[in-house]
Amino acid sequence: MTIDRHALGFGGGDRAIYAANPWMTRGRLYPETSSLTRSEFQRDRDRIVHTTAFRRLKHKTQVFIGADGDHYRTRLTHTIEVAQIARALARALKLDEDLAEGVALVHDFGHTPFGHTGEDALHEVLLPFGGFDHNAQSLRIVTKLERRYAEFDGINLTWETLEGLVKHNGPLLTFDGEGTRGPVPQPILDYCQIHDLELASFASLEAQVAAIADDIAYNTHDIDDGLRAGYLTFEMLEEVPFLAGLMAEVRERYPVLEPARFTNEIMRRQITRMVEDVISVSQGRLQRVKPQSADDVRNAGLVIATFSDDMATTDRQIKEMLFRRIYRHPEIMRIRAGAAQIVTDLFKAYMKDPQLMESHYWVDHIAGLSEAARARHVGDYLAGMTDTFAIDAHNRLFDHTPDLR
């Protein structure tokens, strides 16, 4: 039986010359037979969705602990929103939508329970052993820790998806080998010894739109969740001129509108304006750079998918407001302290007695490892926990567990 891939939409007739081409991928670490019905980047996206790590995101904190309410974003719902925006940007710029979506779906795999609080706490206890970086942990998950296939560890993603995972925020090295944002995490360097992800170049434009989609998504939904939780008010949003302008637009068109609808009208306009800004800037930079291939994008020496100067200022103002009004709110800080204690307590307990990690795949072999190797396994185990699993584990091992409500 013969399948016409072009009839399935695989011809790429609308794909720009600078887009990543799934039929010219640099391949996988472990070669595999290609699919008759899916492109290589579609296969990556599908593998990501079917991982244990993806399912765990539904019980990992974004900003507000899940127990606070059913409607707050979790890592999973955040990830889905990022993927939707990334795909919209990719379509507008004639990129490979599947690659953009795949990078968006995998970008938060390495996050710990309890959001950035858990990451900070885990980094602190792992500092003597190289620290913790969620981006490096995402790479470990998809290249080593997911154990689903008979022939290899990880899920054997294409070079382009792995590159996007690691470099979506820009190059990690200068061409002189210096870290662009400090030392490159060792797990990334170790992987690049066997599968070079070219850390000194930019990522594909698909990965770039996934990165800016992340900013757009959390700037918007953290405002939405903050209003729902009562940490933000509409008056506070007036601090940001861009948001004040959006609210004035909504009030003029809908003078009497209930708060929930009013919030949604603001949020949808915010996403639209930011997306349109990125498209405009990207199109302008593409006209200047004139890339003739995805590699030309990687070697352009600048980010192509980004905000204009005015929108970048708005982005900073929104982040400053969120930091001041929500992330450093006394109640959030109380919860963060309790979450950090849970992670720290569990790390110490598992280092002292690795057999307590009953469900860890390497538990029977940890006792004979060096302290550094044991610490990395404990870090893997903790990073993979959901909020609920971590709280339950702490309840089993300690007489008192902090109240995170």
From TrEMBL:
Gene Ontology terms: biological process: dGTP catabolic process
Domain of life assignment: Bacteria
CDD domains: HDc (cd00077)
One Pfam family of this chain: HD
InterPro entries to which the protein is assigned, alphabetical: dGTPase, dGTPase-like, dNTPase_2, HD/PDEase_dom, HD_domain, PHydrolase_assoc_dom
Keywords (A to Z) from UniProt: Hydrolase
Residue ranges annotated for the HD domain, each copy included: 75-219
GO MF, one annotated term: dGTPase activity
UniProt cross-references to PANTHER family, sorted A to Z: DEOXYGUANOSINETRIPHOSPHATE TRIPHOSPHOHYDROLASE-LIKE PROTEIN, DEOXYNUCLEOSIDE TRIPHOSPHATE TRIPHOSPHOHYDROLASE
Family: Belongs to the dGTPase family. Type 2 subfamily.
Alphabetical list of HAMAP family matching this protein: dGTPase_type2 (MF_01212)
Protein's UniProt name: Deoxyguanosinetriphosphate triphosphohydrolase-like protein
